[in-house]
Structures are given as structure tokens and as C-alpha cells.
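Lecture notes, unit on protein representations.

Consider one protein chain, 561 amino acids long.
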Amino acid sequence: MKKIVMCLLLACAATACKEDILEQYPKGSLSSGDLTNKTAAEALVVASYALLDGVYNGPIETIFNPASNWSYSDVRSDDAYKGGGGTGDLGELNSLELGIIAPDNSLIERKWRALYFAVARCNKALKSLNSVPDAGFPEKATRIAEVRVLRAHYYFELKRHFYTFPYLDESVVEGQEGKVANTLSSEQLWQKISDDLTAAALVLPPTQTDLGRVNKFVAYAYLAKVNLYQRKWAETIAAADQVINSGQYRLQANLEALYSDPNVEHGGENIFAVETTVTDGSTTSGLLNWGDLLTSPPGPAYGGGDHFHRPSQNLVNAFKVDAAGLPLLDTFNNSDLSPSATTVPVDPRLDHAIGRPGITWKDFRSEVYGNNWIREGATYGPYSKKKNIIYVNSPLRAAQGFPWALGALNFPLIKYSDLLLWKAEALIESGGSLEDARALINQIRTRAANTPPVLTLNGAAPAATYRVGTYPTTGWTQAYARKALRMERRLELCMEGHRFYDLVRYGDAAATLTTYAQQETPKRPFLSAFRFTANKNEYLPIPQNEIDRSGGVLTQNQFYR
């Protein structure tokens, strides 16, 4: 399947950027007359999967549209700085980090275009599938359901980034896409997304033969996520339980392997992921995880790196623990954890998620992560993202040198750990069983306690003082459980593109990020320019070029008028 994906990815490359994206169906080797047969329909289904990685016009686009959303979420949150070669390097991303958000920012336009190219592929696939006779095509209903899940994913991304958008489905006449206005209400848009997922869940099989194809439980997991964003707690729990009770998913025992080893990515934790490969026969490099190209450190391990997506000091401080191994929920940022501290007790997930001076880097044994690995340390500090970067010695790594640290490492869009925390959150917020919520959170923490720790370079001992405990029943009130849940999401899922969206969901983005910038500015002076306007910066504006090209059909979303 991965080979097919890459072939179609190249065949369906985008056309001229000056054309209205809503009127551009994917153009490739298949003409309109070719689309009413099973082979063409199957190819278009795979083409719909291909844009999960954000590539719609060559690998360069996924650098700016990463599947992880690190540039649209983490860098806009208290988890990460932009990084790279100073504030002028990718200046438009620097603007997003500082809350200076304008409709003419090209990164915003790239995000919009990538998602609409993906939607267009899905709709073209659905039209083709619907035109193929049922006879001789027993997979037809399943393929339609797969594409509906993919379309729901792309529209979910549009919803949480832009709030409002034109909703196009397969019933829109080709060539008339640009005449559809963004007039549906927020509730109507959510319902459209939910309808696709609900219908798909009823049709999809529990498992699929091809790795990477969505199944029934991917649909239910995504439905849980969509309900969570709408604060529909009972529906979130019900959908999550479908996945949990299936018995198909579990927490991976080894966190470092989960973030580094392609051989474990189908081991049960990744419910829905972007599939990658080192070589697929169509290119010299294969379909790599290009969205992470900019994020590796420039040290000796990978032969270079651009060092974007840098963990903040605030995030590092969040991993400090008390004598019982519990997070310092209210006081973690009262003092800074020294970059190379090894005697202060910390959650072991710190050194699996973040590269710190003096600490071993994954399977690299020539030297520890140090000052020669750090780019622009005076601006962005000493830390590096460590998650979702392939093992240095993996046979599924592309090459030493460029493309830095890339390989066949899938990116998880939905993990089982994430889903368990969705259910815990829904239980807490709905007034449900706090004990069940505590058990779910403790399940995540127990995995952290039992995972093999990062070791010293010689492998003789843990690299730092690691401690993690489970929450007791004493004092487990709704208010305390809410704090614990939100901290657990941050610790477990940091640097995976979730934090900003979580803060928006909580209604805490303005307060949390304003305080963060104030406290972080003495250490990172570039943050003195940060600003966050409540009821505006939670979303991105519709790109101005798209509004101008629409001839008055599109209107700017309510936050940027």
C-alpha cells in the first residue's frame, strides 16, 4: 500500500497556486473517463490516504504542513519555541509563535490549501466509488467508509484551525466548488464531521489486511475525539469504550521504542497513524516523515539538523516531581530545573521526550547530547525534541546527513494513551466516576514507571533520578482530578502537536499563554513581543488570498473581521 501511496502522491501533484483551491480537483494520470472502474476507484482511495502527511505539492509542503502540527500547535503553546537559526529563520512561523497572526501569512495559506486538496481527493474518490457497480467489488462499502473517515479527519483539522469553512462533499458538481460559501454554523459543521464517522463505524471491519487502512475502531476513536471537542461527554465515553472494549489496543511497554523504532509502531498503541517508508520503488528516499525534517538537532548523531521545534523551559519544569513521584501541579514553574540536572527527581518521560545536555540520546553511544548539538542556544535554550525521531542506528533510517533523521517512522494521529485520557477527561467533566478516571490516569503513569529508563552512556545506571507514582484516592476531588488530568496530558503527549488545541478546549489559552510569556521572557527575551488576544488567537484566519479569489463567496471568520 505504501508503494501505491507514493506513486499516487507524485501523480496527483498540485497545479498552479494562483488558481482557487476550492476549484482545483487533484490532477494526475487519471482522466475523468477513467474513474468508473474498480482499479481507478481503489487508486483514488489510496490517493486520499496520501495527503495524511500534508504533501500536496512535493515534500517541501509537508515541512510547512507537518502531520504532527508542531508548527501550528506546539510552537503556539507553552510547550515549545520555534527554534532554528534565530527569530528571522522562517519569520512567518516566528509570527505565529508570538501571536502575531495575519490573513496574509503564507503558512496559514499552506495549511488551508493542503487540507482542501485532501478533501478534494476524498470527494473525487467517493464519486468514483459510487459510480462503480457493486458486482465484482465486494470491498466497495468498506472503501467508501474509509474515505469518509479520511474526509472527517481533514475537515476536523479545518475546524480546529479555522473554525468556519466551506463544506464540500461528493454531491457538489465539479467546477462549482468555488461557489460554496462558508455559511454553515459551527454546530452544523461538527455534525457533518460526526455523520461521516458514525456512518463509517457501522460499515468498517474490525481489522484490515493492509497496514495503514482505517478500521471500525479508528472511526470510533475519531468520533470520541470529535465529541470531546464539543464537550459531549457521554458520547465521548461511549465511543472510547468501543475502542477499549475491542481488546485490539494497548500501551506499548517501551516508551523510547514507541518514539524511535519503526518495528513497534503497529504494536497496539497507534490507533491511527501516517504511514511512511524508506524506499517504495518510486523514489530514492521513499515516503519519509518529511514533516519532521526541520526538528532534529545538528549534532553528530544524524550528520546535521535544523533544530526547530525546541522544548521550552516551562515544559521541562513540568516534569519535576515530589517525594511520591507526583507532578508539582501548582508550583512546577516556581524554579527552573537545571538543564543537566541528574539528582533532582523527575518523571522518566522527560528524557524520553526531550534531549538534555549530558543525557544519552536514544541508541547513540559515541557521546551524550551536549553543547555541540545545540543551535542558537542563546535564543532558544539547550533542549531538543526527542520524540518521533528515529533511532540513529535503525536500518529503516534514510541516510546519514540530509535528509536529517528521517526514515520509516510513522506519526501517530491517535494513540491509545490519548484515547484513555479522553475518557478520563469526559468522566471528570461530566461528574462521572472519579475513581474510573483515576484508574485511567494511573494506567498511563504505571506504564511510565515501568518503561525502561534512559541509561548513562555506558548503560550502567539510569541517566538521572527518575520517579513516578500513581495518584491515591485521598483528596481525589473533581477539581484536583481536573488538574491532574490536564497535567498528565501535557506530560504524556508533549511535543506531539496537542498542547495548543488542549488549551483552547479548556478555555485557558489566553490566561495560560500570557502568564507563560511573562515568566519565560527573562530567559527567552524574544517572547517579550508575545501577545494573545482572547476570542481571536484561538483560531487562524481564512487566508486573504482565498477570500480575494472567491469573488465575495468566502467571508472571513468572525474572529478576524
